[in-house]
Amino acid sequence: MSAASKPADGRDGDINPDQRPASLDDCRRCGLWRNATQAVGGEGGRRATIMLVGEQPGDKEDLAGLPFVGPAGALLDKALAQAGVDRRDVYVTNAVKHFKWQLRGKRRMHKSPAQVEIRACSYWLDQELDDVGPRVIVALGATALGAVMQDAKQTLKAAMGKVLKRGNSRVLATFHPSFALRSPSHESRDAAYQAIVQALARARRLADRPDANP
Ligand code: URA
């Protein structure tokens, strides 16, 4: 197996929970750095009142070094605009900061992160949450929800429509934008997209008027 196609899933003992790296570029807390171009940190102001959390960077994000700049990012931008949320007012990040992939033909295809990798990377998400202190966190998909709530057993189905809490932040859960892109029918794609828009609009209302009933 070539180095490029070697699976980087941390099962080879590549987990170093005691490492406390000063920067993302130095992070060796799990093995995903080996096959990634670079770490992709969060983007946005420290004073953002809304934080969006995705799963992990994709192929485009890995190359650009920025979160949500590929197809899922384009759908997210469209949903943000429709929900009346300016992306410049939002902090956007991922539960896992390195792209995990497997080769299919010549393409690097997304591979879901393992729980040990998500836990290792919570070191960074926790710091981002402390630094930004968002009023509202929107978890995009099940991986993000588990990471934000520090509970891998949380299900998207049970959480959607509810207002959860993490510290002083309220937490809303919705579909991952990639789910809205890949759903099999036009109807299911549209329903997922509308659910994302609704969650973002609710996040805006909650962030603007934290004491109001959303
Ligand atoms: N999917 C994610 O979860 N995050 C990104 O940054 C891009 C795609």
Automatic annotation (TrEMBL):
It comes from the Bacteria. Residues 41-194 form the Uracil-DNA glycosylase-like domain. InterPro entries: UDG_Type-4/5 (IPR051536), Ura-DNA_glyco_family4 (IPR005273), Uracil-DNA_glycosylase-like (IPR005122), Uracil-DNA_glycosylase-like_sf (IPR036895). Coiled coil: none annotated. SUPFAM superfamilies: Uracil-DNA glycosylase-like (SSF52141). GO terms for molecular function: 4 iron, 4 sulfur cluster binding; deaminated base DNA N-glycosylase activity; metal ion binding. Residues 1-22 are annotated as: Disordered. This is Type-4 uracil-DNA glycosylase. It comes from Achromobacter spanius.
